[in-house]
Amino acid sequence: MDFLVDCRSLKKSYGRRPVLHDFSLQLERGRIIGLLGPNGSGKTTFIKILAGILSKNSGEIKISGRQIGIESKKIVSYLPERTYFSPSMKVKDTIKFFEDFYKDFKRERAEQMLSGLDISLNSKIKELSKGTREKVQLVLVMSREAELYLLDEPMGGVDPAARDYILKTILTNYNENASVIISTHLISDVEKVLDDVVFIKEGNVVLHQSVDEIRRENGMSVDALFREVFAC
Amino acid sequence: MKWKFDENTPIYLQIVEQIKTQIATGQLKAGDKLPAVRELAVEAGVNPNTMQKALSQLEREGLLYSVRTSGRFVAGLEEQSEKLQNELASQYMESFLDSMNSLGYTAQEAVSVLQAHVNKK
């Protein structure tokens, strides 16, 4: 089977502290996957390895058959936890920035979404609220025709109404051959849009199942199951 | 369309139920065309695969049919909405009896208190 993400026995430590132990995960195309786990479980580390900004210690990892590197970055669109644009940039400069960097970037799509959000292309990043900055960054990331979208806490700083808008933005923009990985703590907000969930605990995958199966087998939501599995 | 989802059952089943209710109550009529899967999914705020799964099930049950290239429609059987109404009504009655049963009423007792309740109104 041709997996979009094929990751086997991945290991990663920071100094002597292991973060991912023998981490294996295969993800298909055309799915929206929730990456769920408590703080410090290794979610962000895994996403950063996929994005190519951290290197693994050992193990195998491929995206669409490609090793992590320049070739994988062409097909991966990554939304980091924190926005990274310079405060003095205008929104239209950030569009130019993405256009220069990524061949698959669709300017019209970005402009259309920004106007739907009433964000002016002439606003400076430093004049925008934290939530609005996050929206700009998400719009840019979702305006690429990528095969894999990595969204690390995409709704951390925004209000519940804007969360719905963000989820709709995600639903409207990925295509059938692409997958979206969303790491989040706000499970009940994202649950309806997910195909599958992956629970990570202390650097290992403890569950990888479809949301339908979880609800059918346990008679409870993913949010409720998460609280049970990760009860302190 | 208004969508509302609970926490505990698979979402595609809830979509199936809600579309059935719309057909039973005549909000969706024979021959009505449904919006595209992606559009419906975005409207309901659910995953497109989930919406697809629900619509396929409704097709298998004969409530919807698709015409290649032109879309998906509500099937035109006359007796269909009546059949659905009966189906939904028996589900509601079952769930009423279950709830009453958990309070300690037998089916007979449940019927007579329901009758008394209706008379009082």
Q: SSE string of chain B, helix = H, strand = E?
A: HEHHEEHH
Distance between the termini of chain A: 38 Å
Major sheet attributes of chain B: 3 strands, antiparallel
Major sheet strand order of chain A: 6-7-8-3-9-10
Shape of chain A: globular
The coarse overall form of chain B would be elongated
Give a quick precis of the structure.
The complex is a heterodimer of chains A (232) and B (121). Chain A is α/β, with parallel strands linked by helices. Chain A has one domain: P-loop containing nucleotide triphosphate hydrolases (Rossmann fold).
Description:
- The complex is a heterodimer of chains A (about 230) and B (about 120).
- Chain A is of the alpha/beta class.
- Chain A is built from nine helices and ten strands.
- In chain A, the strands form two sheets. Chain A has a six-stranded mixed sheet, with helices on both faces. In chain A, strands 2-1-4-5 form a four-stranded antiparallel sheet, with helices on one face.
- In chain A, strand 7 (about 150), helix 6 (about 160-175) and strand 8 (about 180-185) form a beta-alpha-beta unit.
- Chain B folds into two domains: about 10-75, Orthogonal Bundle (Arc Repressor Mutant, subunit A); about 80-120.
- Chain B is built from five helices and three strands.
- In chain B, helix 1 (about 10-25) packs across helix 3.
Write the layout of secondary structure elements.
The complex is a heterodimer of chains A (232) and B (121).
Chain A: E1 5-14, E2 17-27, E3 32-36, H1 43-51, E4 58-63, E5 66-67, H2 70-73, E6 76-79, H3 91-101, H4 107-116, H5 130-142, E7 148-152, H6 160-173, E8 179-183, H7 187-190, E9 196-201, E10 204-210, H8 211-218, H9 222-229
Parallel strand pairs in A: 3-8, 3-9, 6-7, 7-8
Antiparallel strand pairs in A: 1-2, 1-4, 4-5, 9-10
Helix pairs in contact in A: 5-6
Chain B: H1 11-24, E1 33-34, H2 37-44, H3 48-60, E2 64-67, E3 71-74, H4 80-102, H5 107-120
Antiparallel strand pairs in B: 1-3, 2-3
